[in-house]
Please model this.
Amino acid sequence: MKRSIATLSLACTALAGLLLGTAAASAAGPEVVAGPSKDAACFVPWTDKTKFFKFPAKKGPYRIALANGFIGNTWRIQMIKTAKAYADQADVKANLKEFKVVSTGEDIAAQIAAVNNFIDSGYDAVVIDAQNPTAFKSVIKRAQNAGVVLVAFDNTVDSEDIINVNVDQKGLGEYWGKWLVQNVPNGGTILEVRGVAGTSVDTDRHDGIQEVLKASGKPFNTVEVVGKWDDGTAQKVTADAIAVHKHFDGMTAQGGSTGMVRAFIDAKHPFVPAGAETENGFRKLCAANAGAGLKCASGGTGPAQVAVAIKTAITALQGDVVPQAIKLPLAHVEDPDFKDGENLYSKQTDNFFVGNAFPTCGINFTAQEIMGQSEQ
Model:
């Protein structure tokens, strides 16, 4: 009898261990499966080596949060408005029990705390514009254990255990760099207006520009200033740079492009080739001053990335297959192809990023839809 009880006890212990191991395995993250994804036209894998995730299906509607970091520029404000506009669309709204937005500024610890709070509060998914690409390892582990889907976009996270949605940010820097090499054929001094320090977007775009300039073999010299992707900041630091260095042969801005060009106008500096973002104000200035010598390439990534990230989170929660890294197309236009009503809008505010659509994902917003949302 004692042996039977002992045997039974041992069997129970083994079974408990097995069940615990199974639970731990199921909470360790999504299953890695073969592709393609649920929506192959929208969810394009980053490379042919990108793995595919399948999360356990959850019954909706879902609680989804957007954890934004930096907020002090028009791109981020438009991004938040776009997120709210997307969440308000009837077919998306039907899948949402709650959609919450929080912005924590440049404080990395505060953003991590916000994501952890959403996990602890039982949210089904958290969408993140990460303030730092390497600071979220512990957060990812907690999310996996809690069965929470994490999707990073724009400023993504250096991990293959989280879904990342982005355009080729380094490729965008390369695009601007190639434009400058072509249009400043003898080399020269380039003003580079950078973004928010420490973010993956700033680093990737900077690396793309610099690698192309260096590879050209031409005598390029770069003066770097920090514009934080903001028109007012970019205008001030550009004005300061012109005052100190007197002359530039080309200019490029990751954001705050309108402010950069305005500083050149205010300083009465001759127009030089410009490779910069997709701000409406920048494109209006490029079109208006083309005859005066302002030659531009405008390329970038619309804030509607956030809508793709939310769409990805919902798809993953429904148990459908998604790539671990999703690559979105860039929007760009070059001189002399700037056209009012097509790729710039003279009657709209300068503080609007054009190209805010991803048609392959069924995502296309008018300025009115986005600007009608609050910034909170």
